[in-house]
What we know:
- The chain is an alpha/beta fold.
- The chain has one domain: HUPs (Rossmann fold, 3-Layer(aba) Sandwich).
- Helix content is about 40%, strand content about 20%.
- The chain is built from 4 helices and 7 strands, in the order βαβββαβαβαβ.
- It has a 5-stranded parallel β-sheet with strand order 5-2-1-6-7, with helices on both faces. It has a two-stranded antiparallel ribbon with strand order 3-4.
- Helix 4 links the parallel strand 6 and strand 7.
- Helix 1 crosses helix 2 and helix 3 packs parallel to helix 4.
- The radius of gyration is 15 Å and the shape is globular.
Amino acid sequence: MSDVVSTSGPVIVVGVDGSDPSKDALRWAARQAQLSGATLRAIMTWHVPMINYGAAMPGPVEADVSRDCKEALDQAVAEILGPEPGIKLKADVVEGHPAEVLLAAAEGAELLVVGSRGHGAFKGMVLGSVSTHCVSHASCPVVVVRHGTKV
Length: 151
């Protein structure tokens, strides 16, 4: 479901990691894109951890991780938006730290949308580290969608 359209004109960027809060953010962002006529750019990130004191994992693993993320992103988009989203949509998988990738993608965007927390280790926190970092450093407005928010 990626590369459905180019991202010319207004863009809304949304971070998706497959968690319920990120699916809520995707739903909210899609509704906003529909109302504003913006292109929705859904982004899932991945990062191969460094092991053995800085030695990166081998290349074939990276291809597998990227492919698995692409499948997970397409599944989340299909689950939330259905087979005919009714909006301009671009779904991308990008290697890198989630906050940094989202901030870079949001340069020049109308809006950045994130869930209140995702797959991080501190599930009891009100805001996760990615959403907090995005709110603190984004060059555009940021909406943090709390889990359970109805559109």
